[in-house]
Write a structure and sequence with these properties.
homodimer; 8 helices; four-stranded antiparallel β-sheet; alpha+beta; 185 residues; NADH Oxidase
Chain lengths: 185, 185
């Protein structure tokens, strides 16, 4: 089963090779994403594909400004997971991934957030099939990052997907057993 | 490209054949879903698979109670879309689909809603590959429906996926052209 194979092989990637990514591949992944269903078929999504090096750096710096504040406050098992996973406020992949896909959701349509994330689900499997890696990153302070991006006024930032060929040797995070997450009635 | 093929062929299904659905197929689709990434790997999702006829009927009635109120209020182009699509407060598929998958999100973990919808994206492509149809239905009044379901206290209802073999001849909703939804910078 192809989707099971892709879903199982796919893992989050936070380090990328320098190798550039053909724009057509990323467009192909977005082409898959926009086939997703959406509330009342509003298709309340937009995708900014950022190749510009200065803009990627700007996104990184704005994101890190928000993360520095966030990391002062995060506690408990979330903090433990972050520390164990060696994740901190630094987001170099936003600057050094060959491309960023900025995922936007429209403000004035129903279920746009749900629809956008559903489309991101489609996109992750498509990227895996295309041999490309990513991480679905949502900045802790959205406003700071929105301010450096050309976002139309009726849209908001939902996620940033840095995209490239994996240079990340971290293994996939464990998943719970199926039997633990389903209940049959 | 398999994901593109599945994404393009998949359309929303609201009418189902009587033919029963092997539980193993639905479990396979959930197996795909739970490979999705989630905020801090919390995997804040649970799936209730409802076969019980009385409970399906209860879900339908509770959902319709909420929809009746909602349909009194919805206006503008959302209402137009609903009328054109012949969608109203009646949700017979909740009673007559062979199975319902109730998708739950955990309340006390970060990004659980985003993660759950991402996993639903995985699940939709898996169901398409398995030859099964569904619609991602979110009740207008979640509380009414939560009250008839055995939902653990730390979870909330995000979506209901009625699942079965398609008996719906409505064609797929149009999608915008790729070039209209991307911007390259």
């Amino acid at each position: 089963m192809k989707t099971l194979e892709l879903a199982k092989s796919r893992k989050t990637v936070r380090q990328f090779k320098d190798t550039s990514v053909p724009l057509d591949l990323v467009k192909k992944a977005v082409e898959v994403a926009i086939e997703a269903p959406s509330g009342a078929n509003y298709q309340g999504w937009r995708f900014l594909i950022i190749e510009d090096q200065e803009l990627k750096k700007g996104v990184r710096l704005a994101s890190e400004d928000g993360e520095k504040e966030f990391y002062k406050k995060v506690l408990g098992d979330w903090r433990e997971w972050l520390d164990e996973s060696k994740i901190n406020w630094k987001k170099p992949y936003l600057e050094y991934a060959p491309l960023l896909v900025i995922v936007l959701a429209r403000n004035d349509v129903p279920y746009s957030s749900e629809s956008v994330w559903l489309a991101v689900g489609y996109m992750l499997l498509a990227l895996e099939e295309l041999g490309l890696g990513t991480v679905t990153y949502t900045p802790s302070d959205l406003k700071l990052v929105e301010d450096v991006l050309p976002i139309p006024s009726e849209y908001r930032l939902e996620a940033i997907l840095p995209i490239g060929y994996s240079d990340d040797d971290k293994s996939k995070e464990n998943r719970e057993n199926l039997e633990n997450v389903i209940q049959i009635i």
